[in-house]
Structures are given as C-alpha cells and as structure tokens.
C-alpha cells in the first residue's frame, strides 16, 4: 500500500520510473496517465 500511495502521488512519473511497479495480482495496474499508456511504455522498454 505504501508503494501504491507513493506511485500515485508521483508528479513526474515519466522521469521517475514508477510505471515499472506492477500489481502482484498480474496485469499492469493503474497509472496516472492511464493503464493503456503504461502498457505502451512497458512494451517499448521490452523492445
């Protein structure tokens, strides 16, 4: 929960890589700019 709160309050989420935080239950979880963008960023990093 603490990590989720910190990630949610991150105003510079593209600079500080909070998009790499994934939920234990699977999937991409939430993201300040939407889960679709988070998924795109994660896919681009894998390439």
Instruction: Catalogue the unreliable spans.
Output: none
Morphology call = globular
**SSE topology string:** HH
In quaternary terms, these chains amount to: single chain
Calculate the mean pLDDT score and round it. 81
Q: How many separate helices? A: 2
Strand percentage:
under 5%
The major β-sheet equals:
none
The chain-level structural class is mainly alpha
Q: What portion of residues is helical? A: 40-55%
Overall radius of gyration: 10 Å
The total strand number stands at 0
Determine the N-to-C terminus distance: 30 Å
Tally of distinct domains: 1
What is the gist of this entry?
The longest helix is centred in the C-terminal third of the chain and has 12 residues, at 35-46. The chain has one domain.
Write a structural description.
The protein has 47 residues and is mainly α. The chain has one domain. The chain is built from 2 helices and no strands.
Keyword list:
single chain; 47 residues; mainly alpha; 2 helices; globular
Question: What is this structure's SSE topology?
Answer:
Blueprint: H1 2-8, H2 35-46
